[in-house]
Design goal:
Elements lengths: L2 E8 L3 E8 L4 E8 L5 H17 L4 E9 L2 E3 L4 E5 L4 E4 L1 H8 L4 E6 H12 L8 E6 L3 E7 L2 E2 L31 H5 L1 H11 L18 H9 L3 H25 L3 E5 L7 H14 L9 E4 L6 H12 L12
Parallel strand pairs: 1-4, 4-8, 9-12, 12-13
Antiparallel strand pairs: 1-2, 2-3, 5-6, 6-7, 9-10, 10-11
Helix pairs in contact: 1-2, 3-9, 5-7, 6-7, 7-8
Bound molecules: zinc ion.
């Protein structure tokens, strides 16, 4: 029987469990909404979808990997701090082990899991130095350097979202600082740029789009159709994104930066625009040597990476070479 693990994407409002084989291929998905953030209720929802995934597969399940936002100790699976759930020091790993004693259980930050997923099974394959940045509601990320996923001394490596790029006059970030990369260059940041520029474009077609539908797709389409407001928005957004990317290049010098999340669906329309802006700000690394590409696993990256970690017994980017 082929081996597989369960990869779980645990978010603040939703949990998804997938059966993922050793090649990173997803065979089935089970999902449930979460409306109660009490640890027992969240573990209950998680256990329900994991059980459905295990019961519904013919694969030989050898472990359960969970990716979730927050600061997480991957050696124990304890969530030290999670703003999404309002948790401090919740032993999620132990609770899931208690519910599924037959399986090894691994818990880690969702952005680190997504980075591992893209590195092992997505667009990072074959590189040694790789960065994933997910441009969604916020900015998540992770670093592989020399073939090793960087975690940091307190599990904070790769928190690119909260380095400040516009401390003067930038948007206020959810973390309380001003002008964080996440506040300026996430999907939410794109909409904030559109709002900030709105008074200069009183006849913009964008202002007719209902607020709840004003997302990156609507703004990109309007920009492609030549709308002045949308073009100015893209321009301000890409400038901020490029600024942050140039900083990432200076810190990490990756071979590839993969962009994921909702905004990355703009593809070349965004990437071709930011490349020259990144080059302009890149000084100590030879310009144009960092490939900026679109991530390939999409929303599945976190679950695939969590499953990979469960298969390998940790956030291991490159399995040790077998010595004959
Ligand atoms: Zn911040």
């Amino acid at each position: 029987m082929d081996r597989a693990t369960i990869g779980v994407d645990l978010g603040g409002s939703h949990v998804m469990a997938a059966v993922v084989d050793e090649e990173g291929k997803i065979h089935s998905k089970h999902e449930q909404d979460i409306d109660d953030h009490a640890p027992a209720a969240v573990v209950n929802a998680l256990a329900t979808v994991v059980k459905l995934a295990i019961d519904g597969t013919k694969h030989d399940i050898v472990g359960i990997g969970i990716g979730s936002p927050g600061n997480i100790d991957p050696t124990t699976g304890t969530i030290r701090y999670s703003p999404n759930f309002g948790w401090e020091n919740v032993p999620l790993g132990q609770r899931v082990r208690d519910a599924f004693p037959k399986y090894r259980v691994f818990v880690a930050n969702d952005a680190r899991c997504a980075t591992l997923g893209e590195y092992v099974h997505g667009v990072g394959q074959g590189t040694q130095d790789f960065v994933l940045l997910t441009l969604g509601t916020g900015i998540g990320g992770g670093i592989v350097t020399g073939g090793v996923l960087a975690l940091g001394s307190q599990m904070g490596a790769g928190e690119f979202g909260h380095h400040q790029i516009r401390p003067d006059g930038g948007f206020i970030c959810g973390c309380g600082k001003v002008g964080c990369f996440e506040a300026q260059a996430s999907g939410t940041g794109l909409i904030r740029h559109a709002m900030r520029l709105a008074p200069s474009f009183p006849r913009s077609g964008l202002l007719d789009v209902p607020r709840e539908r004003l997302g990156s797709k609507a703004i990109r389409k309007a920009a492609q159709a030549g709308d002045g407001h949308a073009l100015a928005t893209w321009s301000a957004y890409c400038d901020d994104l490029a600024l942050g990317l140039a900083n990432v290049i200076a810190f990490v010098n990756p071979e590839v930066i993969a962009l994921g999340g909702g905004v990355s669906s703009a593809g070349d329309f965004m990437i071709e625009r930011i490349k020259p802006l990144v080059d302009l700000r890149t000084t100590m690394v030879p310009r144009g040597t960092t490939r900026i590409v679109r991530a390939t696993l999409g929303n599945d990256a976190g679950a695939v990476g969590a499953a990979t970690a469960a298969m390998r017994g940790g956030l291991i980017a490159q399995p040790p070479a077998v010595i004959a």
